[in-house]
Automatic annotation (TrEMBL):
Ranges where the EAL domain occurs: 24-274
Span of the entire protein shown here: 544 to 824 of 824
Gene Ontology MF terms in the entry: cyclic-guanylate-specific phosphodiesterase activity
Record GO biological process: cellular response to nitric oxide
Name of the protein in its database record: EAL domain-containing protein
Length: 281
């Protein structure tokens, strides 16, 4: 009896693994077609400057509108796109589309675009950025590129050289998800970042946990001393906003203001948060 049960459990896991492997293969096949079929879109989340109380820019966040499965989160498909060598073309599409869209915005509004560490492997990243800027007419100073600490894990010297070339174009470089993963303060010495994005996990419990306050305070202080802008991610409550303002954080981003929205809603978002006061109204 026990033996039979064991076999049953074994078969169950086998079926489950087959199922997962098949889903994965399906996603790979679908992903390879998605770019040509125009299934990707960019949504834009406002970044709000605490001092001027207005939108300083938008972060472009990639969305996959699957024909049968609906919207699929980038957290699910980007790792797969990286595995199957699709992140190069996909990342290039994001850069071109984002710059083209941002070129329509008021001239003080910037765009932030996420880069995968694997985009640093294809040696033409700088060329793609140059070309996306030239084709869109977007001034380089309005483009921010977001990278994570994983860019420093392999090919460190080569990647730092690429970062310097990007910065020489006049674009700025942000360190995303700061404080998570392989976080090390030494990365701040490896490259002169323009912005640090404080990870959502520290913002989440600001009102409840003194250790989160201490960490946010330390990162803001570091930013001030090193002349690096600090942006807090995942701000959902006015309590969190009040803490961040008190700790001297420069910018905030989160559902309190807006989730990422399609390009067609940018104008409306600018009207609503152009002056922050109108948030309450
Ligand atoms: P990220 O760059 O750290 O982006 C922030 C994520 O937090 C976004 O998730 C955003 O929708 C979510 N978020 C923003 N405000 C809040 C909030 O108040 N509460 C909560 N709970 N979440 C909030 P999303 O759009 O699912 O993207 C996930 C990750 O996928 C991004 O993290 C980024 O690492 C990656 N990603 C997105 N678009 C691209 C892209 O075009 N290229 C690359 N390479 N990666 C991308
Ligand atoms: Mg980001
Ligand atoms: Mg982030
Ligand atoms: Mg994050």
């Amino acid at each position: 009896r026990a033996k039979q049960d064991g076999r049953g459990v074994h078969r169950f896991f086998e079926r489950e693994m087959d199922h997962q492997a098949q889903q994965r293969r399906e996603m790979e096949t679908d992903l390879r077609r998605a770019l040509a079929h125009g299934e990707f879109e960019l949504h834009y989340q406002p970044v709000v400057d605490i001092a001027s109380e207005s939108i300083s820019g938008f972060e472009a966040l990639l969305r996959w509108r699957h024909p049968d499965k609906g919207m699929i989160s980038p957290a699910e498909f980007i790792p797969v796109a990286e595995d199957i060598g699709l992140i190069g073309p996909l990342g290039e599409w994001v850069l071109r589309e984002g710059c083209k869209e941002a070129a329509n915005w008021p001239s003080e509004v910037r765009i932030a675009i996420n880069l995968s560490p694997l985009q640093f492997r294809s040696r033409n990243l700088v060329q793609v950025v140059v070309s996306a800027l030239a084709n869109s007419g977007l001034p380089p100073k309005r483009l921010e590129l977001e990278i994570t600490e994983s860019v420093f894990l392999a090919e460190t010297e080569a990647n730092i050289a690429i970062l310097h070339q990007l910065r020489e174009l006049g674009v700025s470089i942000s360190l995303d998800d700061f404080g998570t993963g392989y976080s090390s303060l030494s990365y701040l010495r490896s490259f002169p970042f323009d912005k640090i994005k404080i990870d959502r996990s520290f913002v989440k419990d600001l009102a409840k946990r003194s250790d989160c306050v201490a960490i946010v305070r330390a990162i803001s202080g570091l930013g001030r001393s090193l002349n690096i802008t600090t942006t807090a991610e995942g701000v959902e409550t006015t309590d969190q906003l009040d803490w961040l303002r008190a700790e001297g954080c420069n910018e905030v981003q989160g559902f309190l203001f807006s989730a990422a929205r399609p390009a067609a809603e940018i104008e409306q978002l600018l009207l609503r948060f152009g002056a922050w006061e109108s948030r309450a109204a």
